[in-house]
Design brief:
The complex is a heterodimer of chains A (161) and B (101). With 161 residues, chain A is an alpha+beta fold. Chain A has 4 helices and 7 strands. A 7-stranded antiparallel β-sheet of chain A has the order 1-7-6-5-4-3-2. Chain A starts with 9 loop residues before the first strand and ends with a helix. Chain B has 101 residues and is α+β, with helices and mostly antiparallel strands. Classes of the chains: A alpha+beta (161), B alpha+beta (101). At the A-B interface, strand 1, helix 1, strand 7 and helix 4 of A face helix 1, helix 2 and helix 5 of B.
Amino acid sequence: MTTQAQDTIVRSEVVVEAPIERAFRAFTHKFDQIKPREHNLLAVEIAESVFEPRVGGRVYDRGVDGSECQWARVLAYEPPDRIVFSWDISPQWQIEADAANTSEVEVRFIAETPTRTRVELEHRHLDHHGAGWEGVREGVRGDQGWPLYLERFAGIVVEER
Amino acid sequence: MADGWAALADPTRRTIFELVAARPRAVGELAELLPVTRPAVSQHLKLLKTAALVLDRAEGTRRIYQANPDGLRELRRELDRFWNQALANFKEIVEQPEEDP
């Protein structure tokens, strides 16, 4: 057995009793109430999470002291069907500045009936967080280029077979 | 500290994890490579083990540590929890009667 693409993807879905347009709008415009609050990269409590509804928009948390933490970029915005945004958070829950080391989240909205919508979420390319591992593999060189055990794990699983 | 994300937030633990991911190593060997004491290394390894990131086995009188291939599963579980909670929140909100005109 080798590592499957599956290992680098997390999926989740939900069916809601709402028309597709309303579901799409709620996801983007009420994102503040959707994102689990306990995940916070700011030093202070989150006052608000903002999803800017356009390609190139930012997704960020604003702390009660006014500080901000941008943790995603909107890559696709296609109402009422689809949104894609980056996940600029490293495996140790810190902001990843290098876009090459980020994963992405796609959210698809599918109308099952005029009043019912299925929402499929796919968080993929988790292995991208592993880029940079090669450079630090041999030495103990501290924090530069973290790592990426995701890629490393893939290697280990393959080697063991 | 049961989750891998938090366990790897500490720079020393991350380095230890990288070292045992490169190849299995004993506690003493890790202590020689790092500017921390042997008991400190043991403590870090204990946390990594709790987070399911490393496995250990006895080899004579030594204990050998290696990366746990199932650790990735644990980390994925964290994201699973995050998105399942987000979608549950979403369902609750979108199914509320519309309050704005």
